[in-house]
Amino acid sequence: MSFIDYFISALFLQAGYNSALVAVGAGLLGLSAGSAGAFIFLRKRALVSDAISHATLPGVGLAFIIMVAFGSDGRWLPGLILGSAISSAIGLLMVEWITRKTRLTEDAAIGAVLSVFFGLGIVLLTVIQSMSSGRQAGLENFLLGSTAGMLISEATTIAIAGALAAAFVFLLRRPMTLVAFDPEYAATTGVNVRNIDLAMMGLALIVTVIGLKIVGLILIVALLIIPPVAARFWTNQVGKMIGIAALVGGLSGYIGAVLSAAEASLPTGPIIVLVAFGFFLISALFSPLRGGLASALRHQRFQRRVHRRQGLLSLARREPIYDGLTIRILRRAGMIRADGVATARGRIAAEKAARDEARWAMARRMLPDDSAIERYDGLTPIERMMTPDQIAEIDRMIQSAQNTAGAKA
Amino acid sequence: MIDNLITALGAEFVQLSLTPILIGILAAIACALPGNFLLLRRQALIGDAISHVVLPGIVAAFLVTGSITAVPMMLGAGGAAIVAVVMIEIVKRLGRVEPGAAMGLVFTTLFAVGVLFLEITDTSSVHLDVQHALLGNLESLIWFDAEGWGSLFDPEALATLPPQLPRLAIVLVGIGLFIFLFWKELKISTFDAAFAGAIGIRTRALGFALVVATAVAAVAAFDAVGSIIVIAMFVCPPASARLMTNQLGRQVGWSVVFATISAVLGYVFAGYGPGWFGSPYAVSAAGMIATVSGVILLLTCLFGPQRKRTGQRAEA
Q1: Residues 81-140 of A with CB under 8 A from B
Q2: How far is CA A179 from the centre of its chain?
Q3: Alpha carbon of B154: minimum distance to chain A alpha carbons (Å)
Q4: Do B281 and A107 touch (CB under 8 A)?
């Protein structure tokens, strides 16, 4: 079967029970990671999860050593997950403690905890490698994730835990939103900000430890960070953003797991991260709300309007136009001839622009505090912002101003 | 006891342990020096980000040149660091997201690219893998031709020193000079960027130069000792030093002391520690050095004379 065939059949869960379960597990993991990550992102603490994920390593090592000491082969996934959860919880509390009790800032605490815990974990891994039963431990797979040879029981564990984490996010979404946006206000309404913060990070912790096997501890943080960043491009509303982040995370996990199952040499974690990054790129470029393409188009449209307006005003004042873009825009609109002289259409439009400009100038003098004036961008025709009565009044004022000026002359 | 010490510091020590310890010390100090300023500027995690993106840089250099010689590796890693800094800036502006999230997005993606390239290309012929990138190979940087302390004065033996040692020494001198020459500017722009700008210091250029110095330190140290030590040394010694004093000069001094202690004790514990427990195997020196720096930080967090924020009550 070719790679594409396999990929398509795996995408629709036709490639065997085991890989289907892994894909669903990775999808659920991504779903909970995306939604939990959305809150952490809004709370501006994205990199705390980096400390949490690196802090799992000593727990994995110690759990393995303890399980071997009790006579098992040490690779029992729930045991390793429990160990990693305990050590990353200690890491998380250390970050909290350092930030609260000393003058060091949170980023320093994060950097210290992640490097030291990771270093300690590496020491333990080398200890394990020297143990007779540890040689085939395969604990290095926890660094970058691997779904190859995953047991069905392990995939089930991950799928259930992922669903539980997603349910937790759903239950805690209101207080977490409140704390993410306005912790002071949340505190005055009786929400315990510190506990909610810890719960948020606790969710990151759960996602991390269940993601260890699939994504690996170095890259799991990407699944918490990239989906919310991508989601932020599409909406300004929290509820929608969390939904989109969950969707992006879920799809990344699912597609990534399927891709790496279809091509066994591809490590799962990096693939999932790159799929998520693909979603980020699409969002950053093509989102109609904040995407790069949409902003560029908006900018270009605005620029053209400004050039058109300024060109027409020059025509009205019978000044020559030198700016290339302005000439091109007016030419294309049939406002000027090739030699720069205004056509009939151009003269009418220019007159209208000049009248509009004069009306606006008078309106600013008459109604300096009017809301229409404050919103004026120098381009909008006055008819769109003011009533016919107001415009008639403005015209009368212009007329009388011209009369007095004429009288003086 | 004395006999033990003399054997411990004898010819075998010079051959097997002297160069790794020296390289560890140089790498630790080279990272700790710029780390002081990163810490005070709240950019401590730049070091983290840079040390992650070194991997794709090195892999890319390998894919282009087909060898793992030092110069293309350094160039590739340096290039990747610059790409990462630019990408972080773009993501920050385009997505209007906080720096932490932008950083996390960029360095995980680049790291994933590096790992993927490693896996899909055939690098088995050369010593290039993720483990090596993370852990370095400090223990293997031995001085084959050394026959004892006398070799230090033997030009022939000196020529066979591991090349990482002189390279790190040069980098350390360079970074030291940068900090020495721009001491006043760095100090002012770190503590009061607006004032620095007002008196004509080019704060943006200086900030970029600091990031470049960080990248150079990370790349040079990475080659010898792996990325764990790099991240740990960027953060831990300066953070511990910050809790010892309120003066920048003394803080830098303390950070050098702490970095040196971490490197020496970490190497000794890793190499000889398991033997004290009757195990014939050594553990990872890189991991142990990071661990020791963490223990030092923990001690300063508990007992450092300046560990509180100013104005914070003693029993807060």
Answers
A1: 97-98, 101-105, 107-108, 110-112, 114-123, 125-127, 129-130, 140
A2: 19
A3: 36
A4: no
Which of B105, B134, B234 would best serve as a mutation to test chain A binding (most A beta carbons within 10 A)? B105
**What domain range includes position B231?**
2-303
Q: How many domains does chain B have?
A: 1
Distance CA A252, CA A269 (A): 11
Residue A364 distance to chain B (closest CA, Å): 35
Q: Give the integer Cα–Cα distance in Å for A196 and A193.
A: 5
> Which of the four pLDDT bands, split at 50, 70 and 90, describes residue B316?
very low
Q: Does a structural domain hold residue B191?
A: yes
User: In chain A, which residues have pLDDT < 70?
Assistant: 1-17, 132-137, 148-149, 264-265, 408-409
* Tokens matching residue A276: 């998520």
> Backbone dihedral region of B289: left (phi > 0), alpha (psi from -120 to 50 degrees) or beta?
alpha
Task: State whether residue B137 sits within 8 Å of chain A by CB.
Answer: no
Superfamily of segment(s) A3-287: ABC transporter involved in vitamin B12 uptake, BtuC (1.10.3470.10)
| A180 Cβ neighbours under 8 A, 6+ residues apart | A39, A42, A43, A200, A238
Instruction: Report how far residue A41's alpha carbon sits from residue A299's, in angstroms, rounded to the nearest whole number.
Output: 28
* Chain segment A357-371, per-residue pLDDT in tens: 888 888 888 777 777
- The mean of the pLDDT values for chain B is 84
Residue B255 C-alpha, separation from nearest chain A C-alpha, in angstroms: 14
Residues of A in contact with B283 (CB under 8 A): 123, 126-127, 130
User: What residues have CB less than 8 Å from B311, skipping those under 6 apart?
Assistant: none
Decide if B47 touches A, using CB distance below 8 A.
yes
Whether B141 shows a pLDDT value over 90: the answer reads no
pLDDT in tens, A64-76: 989 888 877 777 8
Q: Is the pLDDT of residue B58 over 80?
A: yes
- Residue B40: give its domain's CATH number: 1.10.3470.10
Give DSSP secondary structure letters for A83-151: HHHHHHHHHHHHHHHHHHHSS--HHHHHHHHHHHHHHHHHHHHHHHHHSGGGTT--TTHHHH---TT--
- For residue A336, what are the β-bridge partners? A342
Contacts of B308 in chain A (CB under 8 A): 102-103
Query: CB–CB of A65/A74 below 8 Å?
Result: yes
Check: complex ipTM more than 0.95: no
Angle CA A150–A151–A153, to nearest 5: 135
Mean pLDDT for the stretch of residues B13-26:
85
Quick check: is B315 in a domain?
A: no
Query: Residue B3: pLDDT band by 50, 70, 90 thresholds?
Result: low
Q: For residue A333, what are the β-bridge partners?
A: none
| Residue whose C-alpha is closest to residue A90's, from A57, A55, A120 | A55
Residue B135 lies in a domain: yes
Q: Where are the domains of chain A?
A: 3-287, 293-408
A282 interfaces chain B, CB cutoff of 8 Å: no
Contact of A218 with chain B, judged by CB distance below 8 Å, is answered with yes
Nearest by Cα to A310 from A330, A331, A284:
A330
Give me the numbers of helices (H) and strands (E) for chain B, helices first please: 15, 0
Specify if B312 maps to a domain. no
